[in-house]
Amino acid sequence: MKRPTIADIASRAGVSKVAVSYALNGQPGVSEATRARIVAIADEIGWRPNSAARALNGARANCVGLALCRPARILGVEPFFMELISGIEGVLADRSYALLLQVVTSHQQESEVYRHWWGESRIDGVFLVDLHYDDSRVAELERLGMPAVVIGHPSQSGSLSAIWSEEGEAVRETVGYLVALGHRRIARVAGLPELVHTTVRDQAFRQACEGVAEHVIVHTDYTGEEGARATRRLLSSPDRPTAIVYDNDIMAVAGLSVAQEMRVEVPRDLSIVAWDDSPLAQVVRPPLTALTRDIPAYGAHAAQRLLALIAGEDVPPYEDQAAILTPRGSTGPAPSGTQ
Amino acid sequence: MKRPTIADIASRAGVSKVAVSYALNGQPGVSEATRARIVAIADEIGWRPNSAARALNGARANCVGLALCRPARILGVEPFFMELISGIEGVLADRSYALLLQVVTSHQQESEVYRHWWGESRIDGVFLVDLHYDDSRVAELERLGMPAVVIGHPSQSGSLSAIWSEEGEAVRETVGYLVALGHRRIARVAGLPELVHTTVRDQAFRQACEGVAEHVIVHTDYTGEEGARATRRLLSSPDRPTAIVYDNDIMAVAGLSVAQEMRVEVPRDLSIVAWDDSPLAQVVRPPLTALTRDIPAYGAHAAQRLLALIAGEDVPPYEDQAAILTPRGSTGPAPSGTQ
DNA sequence: TATGGAGGGTTATCCGGTTCAGAGAGGGAG
DNA sequence: CTCCCTCTCTGAACCGGATAACCCTCCATA
C-alpha cells in the first residue's frame, strides 16, 4: 500500500500540487472552499507529510536528539532520565517533534553522534546533560552551530542556552533541617566529581555546614556498590557521622542496608537523606527522606526552550524550581550521646 | 555554516555529482584514483549524507522506533527498558541506524504514533513490547504493513516476527529450587494480568507447583506500593507462604521491607525471589535471589532481527535464552515448623 | 582493420513537498 | 470603458542525493 502524496490529493481534487500544499499548510493562496475540499480528501485518504521531503526543503527535521553518556547498568536504575524523557516528550508530541535517543559510552563518542546527526540533518537541536567542567561537548556543539539546551549549570554552558535547578537552596534546606534535629557530623556521599552539579552541591554543602557541623564528602560513581562501600567506611570511622546525604536513591538504599547490616539503626543512630525522590525511596523501611523535584516538568521546560531556540527565538538562561525536602522515616533527632 | 553536499564535492573534484555518489557508496563506475580523490575531499570537508535526501529516494529512513506504554513513574524504576534500549542501540549504531523513542499512555495513542511515524516515513520499522492478549497494536502494525519485531510471546504476535525468552524454564527452575529447600507454600506476586508474559508465567507457575506445593498468585501493576500491599496481605493470612516470587525487583524490595516491618525475617521465615536482576536487588539486605537475564543481549538480538526484516529477509520466530536463577541471601530453607 | 566489450564518466529524471514568479479572472474606482 | 489591484491558482525550479540510460575512449581479439 503506497503512501499517499500531495500529488494524489491534487489529482483527486483536480488542482495542482501547489494548491494542495498551500491548503494543507494554512497558507493564503487558495479559497476557503478549495481548502476545505482538499483537507477533506487528505483526511479521507490518510495523508501525512513525508518528513524527509519536508526536511529536504526547510532544513527542519522536526526531530531533536538526546545522547546519554552513562553505563547502561546505571542508566537503568536512575529513574531521573526516564522521567526527564517523558517530560520532554509531552512537549515535543504537541508540536509533532520526535526524539532521537542514543546511549553512548564516552564524550568523544557523544560528540561524534552529534556530528553525525547534525551532518545528516537528522535533528534540529539537542539536549546536553551531565555537564562536566571544560566539557568538550559544549565546544563541539558551539562549533557545529547546532541549537542546544544544556540541562545543567550555566557557568559551564558556554554560549549554549542553559536550564538548571538551584542546588544550593536544596542543600541549605537539608543541612538546616539536619542541624535543627541536632546533627553535628554530617556526611555527603556524592556522585561523580567531574560533573558540575556534583561540585556545585559539594560547595553548597561545605558552606551550609560551615560553623554549624563537621562535614565530610565522599565521591562515588553513583552505583549502589560504591554507595555501600562509602557508607561502610563512614560508619567505621571513630567519629562517625550521625547523618548522611546521598546523591541518588540507589546509593541511599545501599547505605540503609549497610547501616542495618552494621546494627546501626535508622533513624535512631543514623539519619539518611536521598537526593531525588522515587518510588524506590518509598518502598524501603524506613521510607527515605528525599529531595523531591518534578523531573518531568524540568524536562518539559527544557523542551520548550529548545523548540523556541530552534524557532530562532532568544532564550535566556532559566533557573527551574529547586528540589524541596520531603521528610520521611529515615531522618530523626541525632543520637543524644554524640552531640 | 552550510553543510557540504555532494555537489560541493563534485565541483571541487571537477567531476559530476553522479561520480561522487558512486564513489562514496562504493559502487562501480568510477576509477580507484577518482574514488580516492573524492573520498579524501569528502573527509576533508566533513561531508555526511543528508538523511532526508536519502530517505526521499529509497524509502529508507535509517531509523527505527520504540514506543513505551507505561506511566513514567514505573518506566523510571524499571531498569529493563533502559538496558533493552542500550542493547538495541549497540546493533543500530553499527549500521548507522537511529532510534526514535516515544513514551505514550495508551495503546490507542501508541497506534497513532505508529501511524504518524510510518505515514511520515520517519521510520523503517518498530519494536513492539509489553504484548497483550488481542493486542490492537498487532493488528494496526499488520494493517500498516510496517516491519515490526514483537518482543514477546509468538502466540499473540500474529504475522509479526517475534523474539521472546522462555519463561517456563525459569519458573520451573525457581519453583524446583524453592521446593528443594523445603518450601510447600509459594506465592507469586505477578505484574499486570493483561500482559501475555504475565499469563505465561502464571501458567508455568501453577504447573510447576502442581502436586508439590500450594500456590497463590496475586496480580499488581508493578509498582512498589502494590507489591507491598500484596505482601502484607499474603503474610497476614493464616497459612502464609514461606516463599514469594515477585515479577520485578522494585516489588521484591518493597516485599522485603514489609516482611521486616512485620518481623518476618528473611530468609529465615520467608524466602524472596525477584524476577529480573538489577543493581537494586544486590544492594538491599539480604541481597535478593533473582532471575538473571542478559537484557542488553536480548535487545541486540531483537535489533538484528528487525534490521534483517527491513532488509527484506525472512525472519522466523526466535527464542532467546531463558533467565537463570542467581541465588543470594534472600532465599533459604523453609522454616521447619511449617512443613 | 573492423569489432566487441569493459571501464569511466555524463545527462536526465525522480523522490515529495515548498517556494517564487506569474497568469487569468473578477471587481471596484476613475 | 479602461486601468489597476486582489484573489486564486499554476508551472517551474529547487532541496540533496540515487539511479537508469547512454556515451566516449581505449584495448584486446578475430
Name its key features:
homodimer, 339 residues, alpha/beta, six-stranded parallel beta sheet, six-stranded mixed beta sheet, 14 helices, 46% helix, DNA-binding
The share of residues in extended strands of chain A comes to: 15-25%
* Biggest protein-protein contact in the assembly: A-B, 68 and 67 residues
Strand arrangement across the biggest beta sheet of chain A: 2-1-3-4-5-11
Oligomeric status of the shown chains? homodimer
First-to-last CA distance of chain A: 77 Å
Q: SS-based structural class of chain A?
A: alpha/beta
Order of helices and strands of chain A: HHHHEHHEHEHEEHEHEHEHEHEHEE
Q: How many DSSP-defined strands of chain A?
A: 12
CA-atom Rg of chain A in angstroms: 25 Å
The biggest beta sheet of chain A is recorded as:
6 strands, parallel
Portion of residues in helices of chain A? 40-55%
Spatial shape of chain A:
elongated
